[in-house]
Write a structure and sequence with these properties.
heterodimer, A: 739 residues, alpha+beta, Aldehyde Oxidoreductase, domain 4, 7-stranded mixed beta sheet, 5-stranded mixed beta sheet, 24 strands, globular, B: 162 residues, Ubiquitin-like (UB roll), DNA polymerase, domain 1, 2 domains, 6 helices
Chain lengths: 739, 162
């Protein structure tokens, strides 16, 4: 196997694995001129496993998190450059590869900087300390006389580079965790608006995405499935495949294992045509409730209930005003702009897979299981694809490629078609929230009760399930990130009596496949909770921001709220009970949001300004003011870019996006049946980073729930009615206006 | 068959009904036009044909004829030709503006967005907000970069007025 010229030295780990070690030929690294050397060891307790200093005074970082378009491959360099006193031009991130990267867990929940950053920073601090210790001996200068700039240590009129201070290639500097990290007050690189490394190649057309990768002699493959999945665990069964239906496509081969079906061909267009024309008789069970009956089914399920929080005593809360309601949220799709793509070359003694997985290490284990290979015979390499925003079909495509390659004994490229990606996604699960909140005469919240119904996340990838028929499972690791939780459900407010109950719906009983979609479940909670907060503000005859201020003690939450109030020039006024105006009415709304997986660490706030056309029911979001407190922003421009993106995405999800399905299968299979926000209707966005001296947190989730609920509250302001289900389509707005 | 791409003539060996996208990506190894939907709904595969945006995923090779195809890689030369510049710049002003505004995130949709914006600016040197929104509405971006794209288009227009 010789797919790309190797940039990486062979590693001991793969000794005996023959030619499985390959390098990348990715545009991502066009900007980096340094040669990458694989680390000699891979041990989290050894500095060299994290950062390899090179003799030419450059360094390579073996970061375990992947670039998804969020900019972490630039910001992690800023963190390391800061600790080492190097220029980021001297640094590069090694491509993420199970053969040499550190396993820092999946790139999910905005954890790159929050969770993985401190590990890398600690390694950098330790490396600097050790190199300075050596410099003292080499230069014969006292430690306090040394200064470092651009990786050059100077003192006593002498200079030596870091590169000249490193030992042989097998040296191991222990990572004790005791080296002091730099005082944030002295930061000169962290906090700078440096341009991202990847953007120039991306706009030039030289960036090599996953979809551009090739292997010599590869075949193009397409999976053949019914258009749109049915209930999870109730997969389609093949009754008959009519090979004669594609007999005029001579180079095409049909590949089948169990109910997994695919076509391969040397030319891509032949594979596309064959997948389209191949006549397959499927058995499709009626396993789903259909879109219209989804929420009744969720609410009526026999559930596994967990009291997530029971503080104070709801029964004794003396509420002058009580607001309550039942709120529904839909299944929503990841729908990456470019459908998933993967390459695999499977031999009898080993396999290599290239894909856009958010967790290459977990995928390596799945591939090994499917191919019945030892884990150390499988190498998975990450190449960036289109932004996925959670667990889209990237692993499914990778497993399909591995399986097909094994069956045809050739390298294989799988490209999902648009309907494969839209139809076989791991959707963000739907939700029913029954919420009841009380306030006293002074507008102080006294009671809060949230009951939430939803199913969990599912584990098995479709290709694996279809091919092996193995039983499927629902993720069962206790209260996970999707559970009703104390951060999302009223956690921003100071409420003495709070009861939160999670009603876990059994996901194998006729639901779609679910998984993490950006800011998982948070918008469901904010949509319900923050609308009732606004209703209580109205009952209390208070301005919604003033009402919130009365009920917030935490300084950081006040900071977020005040930031959006100031940016939007919010003039206090109680919510009107009878909005006036012509056909097109204006509204403004405010809301707060957070994200459980970061332990409610980063905080989002938003003000939305909207227009509603009462004759058509169309909502246009004109402007979003969105604030994020994410601790110290490593690169404010990157964080602002995230705030803008989250605001637009949340607008799309609140107004337009919903997966639809019949009793047998998903029917939203493209950008017409699953509409999203486009240029014609996007809001302007004012992004605000709340100044903080706290350690960096995630910056890619919390604005989503804040913006979604702010739009809902702006609709309430505009038409005086709260919608209880999103997306807030024109049909739903018109129905609400008529009622 | 013979096609003209980025001012070069290419002999390609493909069925006439092959969508242009697969020829550009697989035969010519171009990275600009890329698969997004295969349904002309998203603009991922866009190229210029004689200066007008075209969805290469639904355009058969046979429909292209000898028209001049410009891909993302050819935008700087396209700009030089339309503006009658003596030499081709490194980047089309819209590409430079995307860098200046740090507009892309994953950047996958920026092929089509750059192509469409370049077409717009070649026809309307100083487009209004409404004109930009209308022209770009056939393209979508999942990362939600629209506000920065709008700024970049206005920035490029201003640059081109100089």
């Amino acid at each position: 196997m010789n797919f790309h010229q190797t940039q990486f030295a062979r590693r001991d780990l793969l000794k005996g694995a023959g030619a499985l070690v390959i390098g990348f030929n990715s545009g991502l690294f066009a900007a980096a001129t340094v040669a990458h050397a694989a680390p000699a060891v891979r041990d989290p307790k050894v500095v060299n496993s994290w950062i390899a200093m090179n003799k030419d005074n450059t360094a390579t970082i073996y970061f375990g998190k992947v670039e998804l378009g969020q900019g972490n491959s630039t910001t992690i360099l800023q963190l390391v450059a800061e600790e080492l006193d190097m220029d980021i031009a001297q640094l590069s991130v090694a491509p993420v590869d199970t053969a040499h990267s550190m396993n820092q867990g999946a790139t999910v929940s905005s954890s790159s900087i929050f969770q993985a950053g401190p590990q890398i920073r600690s390694a950098a601090a330790e490396l600097r300390q050790e190199l300075l210790r050596r410099a003292v001996l080499k230069l014969n200068v006292a430690a306090d006389q040394l200064t470092v700039a651009n990786g050059n240590v100077a003192g006593g009129g002498k200079t030596i580079s870091y590169g000249a201070l490193i030992g042989d290639e097998n040296e191991q500097i222990p990572l004790t965790g005791k080296a002091a990290v730099k005082d944030p007050a002295k930061y000169t690189i962290v906090g700078k608006r440096l341009k991202r490394r990847d953007i120039e190649a991306k706009v030039k057309g030289s960036y090599a995405y996953m979809q551009h990768a090739t292997m010599p002699g590869m075949l193009h493959a397409r999976v053949v499935r019914p258009r749109g999945q049915g209930g999870y665990g109730h997969g389609p069964k093949i009754i008959a495949v009519d090979a004669s239906s594609i007999k005029d496509l001579r180079d095409v081969r049909i590949v089948q294992q169990g109910d997994f079906l695919a076509v391969v061909a040397p030319r891509q267009w032949d594979a596309v045509r064959a997948a389209d024309k191949l006549k397959v008789e499927w058995e499709l069970p009626e396993s789903l409730p259909g879109t219209a009956k989804l929420h009744d089914k969720l609410r009526g399920s026999t559930t596994n209930d967990t009291t997530m929080l029971n503080e104070g005593n709801l029964a004794q809360a003396a509420a002058a005003h009580v607001a309550s309601g039942t709120f529904h949220g839909p299944y929503q799709a990841h729908a990456p702009f470019g459908p998933s793509c993967a390459l695999a070359d499977v031999k009898a003694d080993g396999a290599i897979v290239q894909c856009s997985s958010q967790d290459v290490f977990a995928l390596r284990d799945s591939v090994a299981g499917l191919l019945e290979l030892q884990k150390d015979r499988v190498q998975v390499q990450y190449i960036e694809g289109a932004g996925c925003f959670g667990h889209s079909c990237y692993d499914d495509a990778a497993l399909a490629a591995a399986l097909i390659s094994k069956l045809v004994a050739k390298p294989v490229r799988v490209q999902f078609m648009r309907w494969d990606e839209h139809g076989w996604d791991n959707y963000g699960p739907p939700h029913v929230g029954e919420v009841r909140i009380g306030a006293d005469r002074d507008g102080r919240l006294v009671s809060y009760e949230y009951h939430g119904w939803h199913h969990g996340w599912m584990i098995e990838e479709t290709s694996d399930h279809l091919a092996t028929g193995k039983p499927v499972h629902e993720l069962d690791k206790g209260p996970g990130s999707l559970f009703v939780n104390k951060f999302d459900a009223g956690g921003m407010y100071d409420i003495p009596n709070r009861l939160l109950v999670n009603h876990a719906v059994p996901g194998l009983q006729g639901y779609l496949k679910g998984a993490n979609l950006r800011s998982p479940m948070d918008m469901h909670y904010s949509f319900a909770s923050e609308q009732l907060i606004d209703r209580l503000a109205r009952m209390s005859n208070l301005d919604p921001i003033e009402f919130r201020r009365r009920n917030i003690k935490a300084e950081r939450w006040l900071g977020v709220l005040n930031a959006v109030a100031k940016a939007s020039d919010w003039q206090p006024a109680p919510l009107s009970t009878s909005p006036t105006g012509g056909t097109v009415v204006r509204g403004r709304g405010v809301a707060l949001g957070t994200h459980k997986a970061t332990l409610g660490g980063a905080l989002g706030g938003a003000v939305a300004e909207i227009e509603v056309d009462r004759s058509t029911g169309t909502i246009i979001v004109k402007h979003i003011y969105a604030a994020l407190d994410c601790g110290i922003a490593i690169n404010p421009d990157v964080v602002e870019s995230q705030i803008v993106g989250m605001s637009v995405q949340a607008t799309s999800r609140m107004l337009k996006e919903a997966v639809t399905f019949s009793k047998t299968n998903v029917t939203s299979l493209d950008w017409k049946s699953y509409p999203t926000l486009r240029f014609g209707q996007h809001p302007d966005v004012t992004a605000i980073i709340v100044t903080s001296k706290d350690p960096p947190l995630g910056a890619g989730e919390e604005v989503v729930p804040a913006v979604g609920a702010a739009i809902a509250n702006a609709v309430y302001d505009a038409i005086g009615i709260q919608l209880t289900e999103y997306p807030m389509t024109p049909e739903r707005v018109l129905a609400a206006l008529k009622s | 068959m013979r096609i003209v791409v980025n001012e070069r003539v290419h002999e390609v060996d493909a069925d006439p009904d092959t969508p242009l996208l697969y020829v550009l990506a697989d035969e010519l190894k171009l990275k600009g036009p890329r698969f997004g939907c295969g349904l002309a709904q998203c603009g991922s595969c866009s190229v210029l044909l004689d200066g007008r945006e075209l969805r290469s995923c639904v355009t058969p090779l046979s429909a292209v004829g000898q028209g001049a195809i410009t891909t993302l890689e050819g935008l700087p030369r396209f700009y030089a030709a339309t503006r009658k510049l003596p030499t081709s710049p490194d980047l089309h002003p819209i590409q430079q503006a995307f860098i200046d505004e740090q507009a892309p995130q994953c950047g996958y949709c920026f092929n089509g967005i750059a192509i469409k914006a370049a077409e717009l600016l070649s026809q309307k040197p100083n487009p209004s907000e409404v004109e930009i929104r209308q022209a770009m509405d056939g393209h979508l971006c999942r990362c939600g970069t629209y506000p920065r794209v709008m700024k970049a288009i206005r920035r490029a227009a201003a640059e081109m007025q100089k």
